[in-house]
Specification:
272 residues, Rossmann fold, 7 helices, 20% strand, globular, disordered N terminus
């Protein structure tokens, strides 16, 4: 009887030690951060019409600097491939780019709508849906915040001029890493400590569409002085889903608040 008890305890200790080692290894592993891709089409030369899968290298650099492993997910329509990609990552960044087609929120195109890419809208929506089903944290940036809102039932102003009282220049004329205008943040949110605990911060700005109706289950966590929505967050206890209208990846090389955004996101993923 004593031998059986000893043997049981021995195997229990081995199991506990192996589990602890596995946990320590898992906790020390850098998280894999998926980044939604886009497509560039060559217009001239031998490769005219050739499609290139791509994403801005600033996203890649920002993820690496914050302690993550970037994993670019190319646009495709294969749901099995999309599911497999989401299975392979620990979290998802939705990158910026084209206008979101108003078809996605049941509106007709208005005069100031710019270039859309419905293939990408469908891909992004599937990617977001799958990531949310599987409890993967999501950070949407610029267009990424817009499609995050639309994919969850929200809408957009197709141009800032269609929104009442919006007067700030939301597409700055200065360099991409220049700070353009201020935002007021909700201190009870992901952004609470990004600007050193202050209720306002400075950001860059490169968008002409803005959020109109916020998706059910989401709340506004940042606004510019003219009332334009600059950040949203989904209220959920067991996941982090955030959309930011500005481009922290373009600031991250030299801007501490932008660096904090990526570090905080990846820290959450690592500890999840």
């Amino acid at each position: 009887m004593k031998l059986i008890d000893y043997t049981n305890k021995m195997w229990l200790n081995i199991f506990v030690n192996c589990f602890s080692l596995k946990e320590d290894k898992r906790m020390s592993k850098k998280p894999i951060i998926g980044i939604s891709g886009s497509v560039q089409i060559s217009e001239k030369g031998l490769f005219a019409g050739h499609r290139r899968a791509c994403v801005g290298n600033n996203y890649v650099e920002a993820v690496i600097a914050a302690g993550g492993i970037p994993f670019i997910i190319p646009i495709n329509a294969d749901e099995d491939v999309i599911r497999g990609a989401v299975d392979a990552i620990d979290a998802l960044i939705m990158s910026g780019g084209h206008d979101v087609s108003p078809i996605c929120y049941n509106e007709e195109p208005m005069q100031k709508l710019e270039a859309t890419f419905l293939e990408r809208d469908k891909f992004d929506s599937l990617l977001i849906s799958e990531a949310q089903k599987k409890g993967k944290p999501i950070l949407g940036i610029c267009r990424g915040a817009q499609i995050l809102n639309v994919a969850n039932g929200g809408t957009l102003y197709q141009d800032v001029s269609y929104a009442k009282d919006v007067f700030i220049q939301h597409f700055q004329k200065t360099k991409s890493d220049d700070l353009s205008h201020s935002v007021k943040i909700d201190k009870n949110s992901f952004l609470e400590d990004i600007f050193d605990g202050e209720e306002t911060g400075l950001i860059n700005s490169f968008h002409h569409q803005i959020l109109k109706d916020v998706a059910p289950g989401f709340r506004v966590i940042a606004q510019s002085p003219d009332g334009a929505i600059e950040g949203i967050q989904k209220d959920c206890d067991n996941n982090l889903i955030v959309g930011l209208q500005w481009h922290p990846e373009l600031l991250a090389a030299n801007n501490i608040p932008a660096q904090k955004i990526f570090k905080k996101f990846i820290k959450y993923v690592t500890e999840k």
